[in-house]
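Work Package 4 report. The design task specified in the project plan requires that, given a folded chain encoded as structure tokens, an amino acid be chosen for each position. We show below one input record used in the internal validation round.
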């Protein structure tokens, strides 16, 4: 007997707690890496203590009390939802229920620690989040510690519009998103749908549920390699004033690719709330679900594991380039349609050479792919282009077709000033700016995956991707230029590029990215220190 949210349930005892909970219809408990136990999205409370469900056997919690966000005391749940909404601590909402439960567990045992940044950072070490950049989550904890506050009065449509503008895909904002109810494909499949996973031979295996499909397919959790991630493209010959080489970089979204379809129906969108920052734009899972449902004659959920995402999902294309102060240069890039046009839009003097490179697929849709690398070279080489200004330790970037961002990175943290037209909702805009800072610092300092000479990714765990932890992120201060009544403009890509350039310049522009991850917990500095 398994007690979930105060009610007894009969469940199979030979699987994971995550599988058992989702079989009971508890969809707030998410599968972001299962069964790696590394992302925290499936966190629940067991007798009040946080536990990762995907690596917890059901038999170990029989007779104990399991609490999900649905089973929290309504007043406690509302207080945390209000705090997350007030600070913008949830964007896509996939990882948020697990994070919220982790903080509720901390509050119930050590309420005084919610106002302690170090204590909250330690609590969040079990979690990954791609969207928020962590600061807004820490602020939500501090808000609850101070007694909480009502959620801000807002125009939900305007808030969702700002989020949609920043991400380039339809978004939702509101309490349901905080609680993980944003309509993810893995949560909305009809009851009784079959589940398809990729087998060891690369073929799809269909079974009645996820656990059975994984067992039949022989899915084995991935491991982190000891092989170093090395930039795979040689620098072009030339007398360059600045050079840059990058490694393979994963989009690192937490919601693994998933879609479902009824026979002769339309597939569920792979990115229901959250566009994976462009990482799912070319995902094949919708087409796969259509094909499998037609062949099976029943609804089928097609899903990638975390290992599948690392091997098969589109990556940021590696580059190697050099530039002269007169603006001329060469950027070699793994062959990716659209990258040359992106570079030409901001740095027309840089010639793009596409090279055939064994490895995972690449995409021009990942945040600022191509033009970010071009502007980094221009910033380091002192090249004057309209999209970029470097002055007095700050970097200003004007986003093609969007707004502008000015960023300064120093020992005190990261200062961001944005002009994005009508903000629509400053809480949401600030949240996306902080998330862009987090992604940019990770790109410069820590994000990469090892790919062998045959082009096969070797880093197969979600922690291998190099996403910065909460403890690694410095304070971020965002100022939004008042421009109400004007057209709202996307600006978070400009924040991403300006932050990356500012941090790279601060470090002295080492040729190869990533430059090395700071480790604050062992005495090293946070990024920017």
């Amino acid at each position: 007997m398994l007690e979930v949210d105060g009610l007894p349930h009969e469940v199979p005892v030979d699987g994971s707690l995550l599988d058992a909970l989702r079989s009971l219809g508890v969809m707030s408990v998410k599968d972001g890496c299962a069964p790696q136990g590394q992302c925290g999205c499936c966190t629940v409370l067991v007798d009040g203590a946080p536990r990762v469900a995907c690596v917890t056997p059901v038999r170990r919690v029989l007779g104990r009390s399991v609490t999900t966000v649905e089973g929290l005391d309504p007043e406690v749940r509302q207080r945390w939802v209000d705090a997350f909404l007030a600070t913008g601590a949830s964007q896509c909402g996939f990882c948020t229920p697990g994070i919220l439960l982790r903080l509720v567990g901390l509050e119930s045992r050590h309420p005084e620690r919610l106002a302690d940044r170090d204590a909250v950072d330690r609590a969040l070490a079990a979690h990954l989040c791609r969207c928020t950049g962590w600061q807004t989550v820490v602020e939500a904890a501090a808000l609850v510690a101070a007694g909480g506050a009502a959620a801000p009065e807002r125009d939900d449509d305007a808030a969702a519009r700002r989020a949609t503008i920043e991400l380039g895909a339809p978004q939702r904002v509101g309490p349901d998103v905080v609680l993980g109810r944003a309509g993810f494909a893995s949560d909305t499949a009809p009851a009784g749908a079959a589940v398809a996973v990729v087998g060891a031979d690369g073929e799809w295996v269909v079974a009645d549920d996820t656990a059975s499909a994984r067992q039949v397919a022989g899915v084995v959790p991935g491991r982190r390699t000891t092989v170093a991630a090395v930039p795979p493209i040689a620098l072009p010959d030339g007398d360059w004033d600045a050079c840059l080489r990058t490694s393979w970089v994963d989009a690192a979204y937490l919601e693994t690719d998933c879609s479902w379809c009824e026979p002769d129906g339309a597939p569920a969108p792979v990115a229901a709330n959250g566009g994976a920052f462009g990482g799912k734009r070319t995902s094949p899972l919708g087409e796969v679900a259509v094909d499998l449902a037609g062949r099976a004659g029943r609804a089928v959920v097609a899903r990638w594991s975390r290992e599948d995402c690392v091997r098969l999902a589109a990556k940021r294309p590696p580059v190697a380039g050099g530039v002269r102060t007169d603006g001329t240069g060469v950027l070699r890039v793994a062959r990716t349609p659209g990258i040359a046009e992106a570079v030409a839009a901001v740095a027309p003097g840089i010639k793009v050479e596409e090279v055939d490179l064994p490895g995972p697929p690449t995409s021009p849709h990942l945040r600022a792919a191509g033009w970010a690398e071009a502007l980094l070279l221009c910033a380091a080489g002192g090249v004057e282009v309209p999209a970029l200004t470097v002055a007095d330790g700050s970097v200003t970037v004007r986003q093609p077709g969007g707004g502008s961002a000015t960023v300064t990175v120093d020992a005190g943290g990261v200062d961001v000033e944005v002009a994005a037209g009508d903000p629509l909702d400053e809480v949401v805009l600030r949240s996306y700016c902080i998330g862009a800072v987090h992604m940019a610092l990770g790109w410069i300092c820590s994000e990469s995956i090892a790919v062998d000479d045959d082009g096969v990714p070797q880093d197969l765990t979600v922690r291998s991707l190099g996403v910065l932890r909460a403890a690694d992120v410095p304070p971020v201060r965002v100022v939004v230029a008042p421009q109400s009544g004007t057209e709202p403009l996307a600006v978070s890509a400009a924040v991403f590029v300006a932050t990356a350039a500012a941090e790279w310049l601060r470090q002295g522009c080492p040729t190869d990215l990533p430059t090395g991850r700071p480790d604050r917990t062992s005495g090293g500095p946070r990024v920017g220190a």
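The longest strand covers residues 404-410. Validation will be extended to a larger panel in the next phase.
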